[in-house]
Write a structure and sequence with these properties.
This protein has 71 residues and is mainly α. It has one domain (2-66): 434 Repressor (Amino-terminal Domain). It is 68% helix and 0% strand. It has five helices and no strands. The longest helix is centred in the first third of the chain and has 16 residues, at 2-17. It is globular and about 30 Å long. The two termini are 16 Å apart. The mean pLDDT is 95.
């Protein structure tokens, strides 16, 4: 599913830019490190609540997190 790939890419990029570990990011968002790991490996289907928490923390919207690049 391309949206899972887009979400994983956005999260990894955000963490890299902000020099955050998975542990730090998960703690700041309020999710478990296991859930974050599953999302970044494109295995989990995060709930809308989780997507909203991630969007709020990263300063983006849910639709931006799931946006698939056409290139």
């Amino acid at each position: 599913m391309p949206e899972r790939e887009a979400l994983a890419k956005h999260l990894k990029e955000f963490r890299k830019i902000n020099k955050e570990t998975q542990f730090e990011f998960a703690a700041n968002v309020g999710i478990s490190i296991e859930e974050l790991s599953l999302i970044e490996r494109e295995i989990a289907n995060p709930s809308l609540d989780t997507l909203q928490k991630i969007a709020a923390y990263t300063g983006s919207t849910v639709s931006e997190l799931l946006r698939v690049d056409k290139n």
